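sorry for the late reply, my laptop died twice this morning and i had to redo everyting from scratch. anyway the thing you sent over, i finally got around to it. pasting the sequence first so we're on the same page, its 71 residues, then the predicted structure underneath. double check i copied it right bc i was rushing
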Amino acid sequence: MFNSVTVVHLIGDPCLKLYRHWKGYWCFAFDDDGLCDTHRVNVKNLNDLPLETWVNEGREFAAAMRAKRKR
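ok and here's the structure:
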């Protein structure tokens, strides 16, 4: 079993957070000096997906957000 702190730590991006939305899904939030967005993951429990899947989802989302900054 793992938690959201572990996921964010393994991703290693200081602008990324992972939290459970009150409606029962999980959400990555990215905030880097005005560049903000969220990425929703439709699972009820964090451990419904493997840790590697969470890390990959978070890294891809963070990379996409940083690519927006470069445009």
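The chain has a mean pLDDT of 94.
thats about all i looked at so far, will dig more tmrw
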